[in-house]
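User: Run a structure prediction on this.
Assistant: Running it now.
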Amino acid sequence: MTRGGGGAILRSARTELAVSAMPTQVVDTIGAGDSFMSALIAGLHDLGGAAVRAAALTVSRRGARPPSLAGLAASD
C-alpha cells in the first residue's frame, strides 16, 4: 500500500514491512503508483534471480554452506 509522503507498507499473510518515503520536492504525482509497482515487480524479479544463484552456489559445494552477500554479488 502506498502512502504518499508516508512511504509504503508491504504486507503478506505473515509479515508486514514499512518503508519510509524518500524526501523529494513533489511537482506532479501522476504516474507515481505505476512507477512504484513497476519497480516492485522488477525488484521481485531481481530477488528471484538472486535466490536461484544462491541455491546454485550452495548445491555446488559440500555441506549446507550458502554464499555470503559478497559471494552472491560476485556470482552475478
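The mean pLDDT is 91.
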